[in-house]
Amino acid sequence: RIARRVIPDVSFAPPPPAAHEFRGMPSMTWTYRSATGQVLGFVYRFETSDGGKETHPLTWCVHETTKRAKWWWKSFPDPRPLYGLDRLAAKPAAPVLLVEGEKCADAVRELGYLATTNLGGSTAVSKTDLSALKGRRVLLWPDNDEPGRKWAAALKEGLLEIRAVVQEIAIPASAGPKWDAGSVLEAERRSV
Questions:
Q1: What is the pTM of this model?
Q2: What is the per-residue pLDDT across 44-103, written as a single tens digit (0 to 9) for each?
Q3: Residues 102-129 as b or e (16 or more Cβ within 10 Å = b)
Q4: Could you check whether the bond before residue 79 is cis, i.e. omega within 30 degrees of 0?
Q5: How far apart are CA 36 and CA 39, in angstroms?
Q6: Which residues pair with 97 in a beta bridge?
């Protein structure tokens, strides 16, 4: 093991790098915060040359041997925090839309709703700390694809274990492949 993450407070750390040493400038960056607003780390999104995307977490770490501290391209320790814990804590009685990805969570927020996502998408549900959603009304909004259906099923199971009231948003019959929460915002913008 190369490094140990320093969580939860990185307020003493210098600003994170603006770019990745190999992937260059990100197309988007998201800040993960604790329920009290402390920065926990970041997720950077990079567009790939084949039209795809890559996301890479950035956390403040201490090297186990040298004890040198710096920002490392390493994921958050398990269990991983939800995105927007500070916003969830500010509205403890509000229903929450749980969507796939930070981009979709921000899109839903632009529409005026409280939203969150898990770090790592459909492959990391079991690594997620869902405790901030205990006893809350949660609406699952999966992407319109097979990973989205698996993501929703896995999250539903975990949410029911913590006594959340869970409902899955129905995907419209007219929705195309990969339809998601961001698609609704795009349609809203086009209609204005």
A1: 0.89
A2: 999 998 989 999 999 998 888 888 888 999 989 899 999 999 999 999 999 999 999 999
A3: bbbbbbbbeeebbbbbbbbbbebbeebb
A4: yes
A5: 9
A6: 115, 139
